[in-house]
Amino acid sequence: MQLALFDLDHTLLNTDSDHAWGEFLISEGLVDPVHHRQMNDAFYEDYKAGQLDPVAYNQFVFQFLTQHDRTYLTGLHQLFMQNVIRPRMRPRGFDMIKKHRELGHVIVGITATSDFITVPIFHAFGISDIIATNAEVVDGQYTGKVAGIPCYQQGKLTRLEQWLAGRTVSESWAYSDSINDSFLLQYADHAIAVNPDDRLEALARQQHWDIQDWSI
Length: 216
Known about the structure:
7 strands
């Protein structure tokens, strides 16, 4: 297997879909604006600092999901896609996915953000194999809990190993913007830092990884 791994937030997207979802809920008047923004921003700063508690954060995100049925949430996500996400899908991301697909590579979207938020976004990029932090569902209803291991930092490699289930990878590429994905980038034969944060840029230069600007 030749494998191309794509992070989502600030890599394929010119935004953070998790944080943007919280802002979207505020803009739609669906959550308390002061409390929700305070919590959302604090968790986002923790993420950028590499200090996020992924279980605590996702339980915060999932709390809204427990209050509504799946049909309503699907419709709300479609509005989120239309108003927030589609304008921020990077053309260079589409181009690179197409390149790997034409080469016959297996393409996987891999993200710390929840499957509820990211599966429709990856599908819009034409990616069907997805590894994300999973929101627990029981009897068709979100419980507010994280199912399994969060797909964050070292957890991305654990989840990738689970997904591979013993299949052999002969060559791999990984694309990400974040120092949180240093483990994933070190795993790959070809590491590509896409519009990297300051710490990832420093690491990429030290490791002689490719650095690309997808904002243009």
